[in-house]
Predict the structure.
Amino acid sequence: MTRRHYNKMAAAIVLILAFGLPLVVRSATYLHILVLLYFYAYLTTSWNLVGGFAGVLPLGHAAFVGIGAYTSTILYLQYGISPWIGMLVGGVLASFVGVLIGLPTFKMRGAYFALATLAFAEGIRVMVENIDRLGPFVLNGPRGLQIPPLKLGLGNLVFASKEPYYYIILLMLLAVLALTWVIARSKLGYYLNAGGEEPDAAMALGVNVARSKLTAMAMSSFLTALAGAFYAQFTLYIHPKSVISLDLSFEIAFIALIGGRGSIAGPVLGALLLRPVSDFSRIYFGDTLPGLHLVIFGVVLILVMIFQPRGLQEPLTRAYNRLLDRLAPGQTKELGT
Amino acid sequence: MLFLIEDAINGILMGSIYGLTALGLTVIFGVLKVINFAHGSLLMVSMYAAYWTVALTGWHPYLALVIVAPAMFVFGYYLQDIVIKPIFKAEQDVREPITVIIVTTGVWYILDNLTLLLFGPQYRTLQDNPLRGRMLEIGQMLISVPKLWGFAAAVLTASGLYLFFQKTRLGRAVRATSLDRQAASLMGINQYKVYNIAFGIGTATAGIAAVTLVPFYNVFPTVGVLFDIKGFIIVVLGGLGSIGGALLGGIIIGLIESVGPQFMTATWTEAIVYGLFLLVLFVKPSGLFGVRYDW
């Protein structure tokens, strides 16, 4: 067997596991944790389009989660529009906002972009907390919005059990991963990479760095907003501190960075490793040791940045390659990152 | 009209304390060219240090300075030396290492949540200290006394820093490193030692700010986040790296917060502050009183 066969086999095993898991895991609590795990993996993968490939550090992605969640929820509650459509509307709105924030900031370097996105997200949160009604739209300020689970079904994206949510977010995650894979191999991917590493050199070669970053930002914020709408339908309750919080923005960035930004598998790997830490420490130590998981996140983040700046995906990729060397020795290496 | 003046004066006083909390941020940026995201958390740690010093010894609140400021200098010095220096060594060619932002954010999370673990989420205040609620009456206006002292501390600290950077040998070494770290190294300046010292100084000013805050402000684990984000806004408003700019930026924020509620719901002032911040960032990123940096 060649490397290509092994790669395919590994992918098939992962897919079968992912799709088969709800048949084995019957507990609603564990399914809930898994759904949130995929939700985070989806968010970090979307974040990675800007934070990874474009080489900047967005620290306000919760704003887009919030835009998606609030748009679809308001449209659903007040106008009876299906969350699937609301999701897309929210996505378009978020990508518009993303471009608006990227337009002036992408010309700046490092810190300013991080600060601008952070302040922007916090500004949105403060505004939502202060607004009860925005024209015809009811936002309910800090109290948030509740979705009564009356009309069940795929069209309304409300289900009585966790399984449908599980498959929907899994499919969303696979789609965004496929998209990332395509982008990484496209002209846009190379432009982003070049612009992230050496903006001056890339510009000298005729790459429109700002423009490719804007494209990435538009896509990233669009995708992030979709997940926001999903989250609203999954938890049936959103408020500014849950969907637009600073902690959410940071957690997205942290997970992606620990997993390995700029790689396809990194953000997913980060979510796989870190989400269980946070969930279980919250379940078992939430009362006695509040905030323990965030201490762990912080320590892991610092250690990874010092000793493994390209994320945990790097040593794991190397280990996988060594395994393949042993299974299929003497073959030339396949291209692929 | 009078109450408007009263609000404005109290706003300027509180704003100068905001500026004081942001001084360290601007010093560290000026030298290391990175934004220390953990600055608010360092302020929070200082506030706990000041709180416990006073609560346990029963000293006058301002006397805590002799313990808190040196302790925070040492804390900042070794934080930079142990946690941040490795990043600088690994990314020597990068002019503004983004990784440092990430690492300091990690420090932020560790400090805030460790404090939560150790001391719990409750708000602590220094009960019956001589400064609490003290007011100065000028005509019919009431001016808060601890804020007045805070204003004095802010001006003194800022002038002290300015003199230190302009007049002393060490200050000149710090400035040389901030201009060109390679050239400074070639001139025999130990670049990393200068970074440690700058970080220590920045953290010590957070200590000074904490001592002035503790007599009238609540101490709780996430108090730093409040000042962290205000600090970012202040230093960008005033121009990153500018000492005077930090004070002026702080005063602007203080004025918006104190005079604003006369015209709108108090919580909206926060949104105004963010709006102003984004506006400055987009229109004039070098800040209102900018030192010009190549952002």
User: Anything to note?
Assistant: Chain A has a mean pLDDT of 85. The first strand of chain A starts at residue 133 and ends at 134.
